[in-house]
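Structure ticket #2291
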Amino acid sequence: MAKILTIATIALAAITALLGFLNRNTLVQTKADLATTQAEVLATKKSLEETNGKLAESQKLVAEWTAKNENSQAEVAKLKAEVEAKQSDLELAKTQQNTINTENEMLKGQVADLKTEGEKLNQEITTLKDEPLRANLEESQNRVKELEAVEAQLNTQIASIQTKANDLESKLTEIKRIRKSNDLSGRILAVNEAWNFVVLNIGDKSGVASNTELLVKRGNTRIGRVRITSVEPASSIADIIPGSLVNGLSIQPGDYVVTEYVAN
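Resolution: structure written out below.
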């Protein structure tokens, strides 16, 4: 009986030891899995924070571009109103000029008729030596002088109105040019660092003019400025303005150019 109890005790001890070993291995594995899970959680939190940061930056950029777009639309509306006003003034000036031209032509016809009549009367006076005819001739000559004075005055008015019309046309052309240049935007196609110039994908058709200065940006970052030196219909060449590059940055293909707005 004692022998049986001894064997049972030994067996129980062995089973207990085996269970302890198995529980220890399970505990070690569980700790390792927990550590791995915690690391994954930390990595996920970090990724989430970076994503939230990028989202906030994107929202900020959208807000900035929305504000710029609203400002640009307001400026375009203002320029449209100015163009319409100048066009109205120009049409009025042209109408006035046409009226004066018509009156001038009529007066020229009258002057010509009076000159003809004066020459005819002069011939009659020379032939007949008649005093009434001489008086009519002097009256006609005086009338001719008056009409010539009116003609000179009208010519002065025509010149003044023509000058005003030319000024209005120049102002209208300048407003259209400014309006078109304020909407300039394009991309850098190529960069020549040795000769310090770039090639743009915008040209004369886009409103680009020589000596126009444009701002170079990458995303929301200002890189520098360039000045147009040569213009083609769909492309142009611009020099990189010395001293305009931001320290540590350089212009690269794919950067975009825009008009640099200056607050009034």
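Closing remark: Residues 70-179 form one domain.
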